[in-house]
Structures are given as structure tokens and as C-alpha cells.
Amino acid sequence: MDGRLLSDTFVELADTMVVGFDVIEFLHVLTDRSARLLDAAAAGLLLADPRGELRVVAASSERARLLELFQIQHDQGPCLDCFRSGQPVVVTDLSAAAGRWPRFAAAAGEAGFAAVQALPMRLRTQTIGALNLFRASTGSFDQADTRVGQALADVATISLLNERSLRRSETLNEQLQAALNSRVAIEQAKGKLAERLGVDMDEAFEVLRKHARASNRRLSELALAFVDGSEKLPGLSAGQPPESPRRGEKPGRPH
Amino acid sequence: MSADRSASRMVAIWELVAEQAARRQARASVVDVCAAVVATATVSGAALTAVTPAGGVHLICATDEISERLADIELTLGEGPRADAVAFGGPVLTSDLADGDAVAQWPVFAAAAREAGAAAVFAFPLQVGAIRAGVLQMYRRQPGPLGASALGDALLFADTATLMLLDAAAEGAAAGTGPGGQPIEIGVHRAEIDQATGMLTEQLVTGVEQAFARLRAYAYVHDRPLSDVARDIVERRLRLLPDDEMPRSGAR
Predict the structure, then answer these.
(1) Which one of 3.40.50.300, 3.30.70.260, 3.30.450.40, 3.40.50.720 gives the CATH number of domain B3-170?
(2) Which of B88, B95, B201 is opposite residue A192, by nearest beta carbon?
(3) Residue B103: phi, psi to the nearest 5?
């Protein structure tokens, strides 16, 4: 592992945590950097909703998000096993795992992933989610990398306990629900922006994040304001005709 | 923990609400959600406040006098878990109003609420991203946290109440709901639904509440799963226009 990249990542995460802390933005940065740092093609983060389902809270790419969702929908896969057992799950060759997770192994192969590592997010005796790293080629996961990966998963857990008093046992559930709702608001904002600019969802997310950073605002706060109309994002709408029937046919969008 | 379990819990929640409506011999509404909460979620009472488009707060229903009194106190004081839940964007769970944190946070409300007979209060904002419909609040006469399963149920009751309020606000009494007032889709949360809602605010030149109502109404009228319609919109195979047919209850 690149030691410089590791220290840069922790400095960046610490910065994100201090300045206008936003849980979703933080988890997104963490997921994205985990993939880069640990030599994974993609990474995803799942959190348990007390309603009784797992939710994809951050993913380094749309491909990773869909694969996480696939596991939830089909109720099988290494990330679910990791979440249920509270133990790391490592699969060095997904093509050999077809017996254990037939549907997942096939879907992962189709998405171009050959190996996966799932690391639990633990809080005391409770498992609250999992950080998942997908690799494009087969092979074992380095032990030092795994320790860093687990440390990143632990940092993700701690980030959910920020903001409100740690002494209150309800903090985690309060934070989790607020984070899940922020995620929904961000998806709504991505949709609105994608439609306005004629871009895909990943591009819309990047535009939104850049604007939040440039204006020094929390991503979820900006997303809420943009969706409810109190923030117009005037610079972004300039030159975009409000009605253009072919606008949606833009080539190159994923999926 | 799986999509199936989540879906079956949601169905169970709906049945509890429908049961309350049947008892009243009326169409299911948020009144039945509050009643079902008290019958199920190990709380002493529940109340629901809705937000008007102009930003006003109205008490829609309360299961008992203490619940009503708590809502009155909060709306009079302008401080308390209801307002905090809205500002925070997540539930505010206070298992003991006598606890130092609660007293520090709401010096006047905490004392007044205890005097009214509440020992614990739990406020759930009724929201879908940027959509904010109101707050579902519960109280307990004895201090103590909601257990994991009661919390899960409370969140599902809040989801239910949110959809009911949005449908009522959209004026299409039938919009987005089945004949029994059931949601047309349950189970795994899909980002496509949220993305499509955002896209529709632009396509329809409307607010996010109306965009969400239109999305659900379209799926209902065309008898298609909400997530399929949402995916068609996100993948730009389907566009809705401002003057598309809109189901109106009793209008056709």
C-alpha cells in the first residue's frame, strides 16, 4: 500500500469530519477512498435500517451500488453474510463461489468483479453495516490492507455517532435515520439536476458535490434546498433550455 | 434482515392500520395510524401534526388528552422534540424527560411535558428526502427506550402516515394507493424512485411533493410497479408532461 496515499486519505477524512460535517458526504468520500487505497475496482457501504432492511448508503460507482442492491434483493452474497455474522468475509475467486451464492456470483461476474472482501461495521456487540470492496481480478487480500480496510469501516461507524451526544443510547438510530433521509434527498437532487442538465446520475452527483464544496455548504443541506426550490443553482441552469425532447437521448450514460 | 422480512413487516403494519379503519367503518387515514401505533408500539399515546404548504403546523389527530396536551405545549412554546425532529431531519428519541440532556435541551418543554403526564417522548419526522409532511409523535407514561422492534414498527408507521398525508395533499384520494389505501410498493428501497421524483420536478415544473404524487399516481393508473416506472423515467424511456392525465377521485 502507498503510505502517502494512506496518510492523505486520513487527513482528508479528518478534514471532512471537521468542516461542516455531513455524514453522507463523509461516507461517500470514505467509500471512494477505500477503493482507491485498497486497490479495489469499486466499494460499497451498507447500513442496517431498523425497519428491517439493509440500505446502500454510499458506493464508489453506480456498478457497485447496483451490485449491493442485488445482494439485498436476492438475499444472498458475501456482504449479507458479513453483516449477519459480524465477521469479515473474503472471496478470492468469485467464479468458485457459485455454489454458495449462485445468483450473486453470476451478477458480480457480469459486472466485471472477480474477488470481494466484506468488512463489518461494528458498534460494541452490534453489527450496523458492512464495507465491501470489489476487485476486478482474482487473488488474496493483503493482511496489512485488510487492517486498514477494517479501520476505515470503524471510522465509518464512528462518523454515525458524531453530532449528537454520545451518552444517549438513541444517538445511533437518530443519526442513521437522518443519514438515510439525506441519502434520499441527494438522490432527488441528482434526478432534478440530471434532468435539468441532460447528464447522467453520476455526473449530476459530481456537479452537486462540487457546488457544495465551492460554496462551503453541506452536501445534504444543498440537496434539500435545491429540491425544495429555495436554492436555484442559477449558474448550472444557464444555457439549458427548459424543454428539449431529445435532451434525454444523450449517449454514453451507464446502464 | 432481508427484503422479504421488511416487506412482510410493512404488510403487517398496513393490516393493523386497516383494522383500525374497519373498526371506525371509515377509509384508512392517519387517525388509524395513530390508533394502530398505540395498539402496537408499546407507547401510551400518539399524535400527528401536519405541515401546510405555507409552513403552518396543524394537529391532525391525537389518541388521548396527554398527546393533545403535548402538541399544544410544543406549538405554544416553539420548543420540543417535534420542532427538533423537523430541523434535524431524523427522529428525536427521548427515553427519559427527567434526564439531564432532555432538561438541558428543552428547559421549559421537558418540565411541562412531565407535568402533563409524559415520561418519554419519541418524535418521527414524516419525510421523504426533501418532502416534509409533518411529525408523528409518541409518548410513554414510564421512562424507557423503544425496543429495536418497536422502533422498526414506529418507522414503518411513520412511512405509512407520510404517504397518507401526501396523497391527501395531492387531492387525488386514490392517487398512488390501492383500494384499501395500501401503498403500491413495499420492500427494498430503490434510489431510482427518488431520482425519478427529482427528474419529474423538472419535467412537470412542479414541487417535489406533487412530483412524487404524480409518479405514484402514474404507476397506479397503469397498474405497474413503482420501481419499474421510476426506472423508465431514470433511463429516459418515459417522460411525463405537465398536462398528462391525472387520476382524480370521483372526477371520472
Answers:
(1) 3.30.450.40
(2) B201
(3) -65, -40
